[in-house]
Each structure stands twice: as C-alpha cells, then as structure tokens.
Amino acid sequence: MQFSDQELLQEYLRRFGGKKFESLEDLITSVEGMGLTTATPLQRAIYRVADGKPLGELAEDPNVAQGLGLSLKALQSYANEAPRELIVLSGIRTAKSLMAAAIAIWSSQTCDVEHLRAGEIPRYSIISINKDLANVVMSHIMGSILASP
C-alpha cells in the first residue's frame, strides 16, 4: 500500500502529535513511539551517540565501551556531538532497521525548516542496497505509526 507524503504526515501528527519525545532514545524505547522497551545498554548508547546526547550512566559500562570499540577511558571522555555519519555493524535482529526508521522520524521532526517554503514537507531519504531492504525501514515507520495509540 502506498501513502502520499501528506497522508504520512497527517497520520503521524494524528497519532504522535500529542506526545513530545525528549530524544531519539525516548522515541525508540517509548511505548508511544517505536516500542523497543527491551533496548540493551549498548543500543541505548548508540541512540545517544546518534542524537549527540550525553552517555550518562552508560559511559561507565565496559560492555558499552567494548561494543563501541573504545576504551572505558575514551568512552568517558566522549564528546556529546552528533556524528555526521554513523555506521552500525552488528548481527541480524539487533534493531538496526528500527533505529534507521526512528532516526528518519526524529530527523524530520527536529530539523531546521526555516529555509523551506510554505507547504514544503521535510523529507528524509531511506535508501539501501535494494528496494526491498529500504521497504523494511519504511514498514517500521508505518507499523509504528499505525500501531500507536
């Protein structure tokens, strides 16, 4: 089923309009958002890195340091700045596509839109090595929107 940009935006606003997510991590792990309530500390650290947020208590976790390929000391001195590019290499069934979907939603809702003309909708490209894999991310977006209260 294909949805127009306007239909997607209207459905998103109808379903998520009343909830203000505090961060990418909140969007992904909230029941009202993407619903990943079982996110591991490493997953939560990746969401914070992607969002440029402080790691907080996760900066003390040696498993997070190892998962990010850093020493514990390097992790503790992590600069809270969102990366221009983020590459997540992990096994299957680790919520990479879900994270990509959440980042697309988060980015479209937190980007600077002052340069857009009236009626222009912020867009976020979802690409992959083939259309089927890109559709997985789109399905996460639509599934979360359609399943939300």
Main attributes of the structure:
149 residues, mainly alpha, 7 helices
How would you describe the overall organization of this protein?
The protein has 149 residues and is mainly alpha-helical. The chain is 48% helix and 0% strand. The chain is built from 7 helices and no strands. Helix 6 packs across helix 7. The longest helix is centred in the last third of the chain and has 17 residues. It is globular. The model has no long low-confidence stretch (mean pLDDT 88).
CA distance, first residue to last residue: 21 Å
The biggest beta sheet is recorded as: none
Low-confidence stretches: none
The averaged pLDDT comes out at 88
Helix content: 40-55%
Strand content: under 5%
- Shape verdict: globular
- The Rg value, from CA coordinates, equals 16 Å
- Total helical segments: 7
Structural class: mainly alpha
Write the SSE topology.
Blueprint: H1 5-16, H2 24-29, H3 41-51, H4 62-67, H5 72-76, H6 96-110, H7 131-147
Helix pairs in contact: 6-7
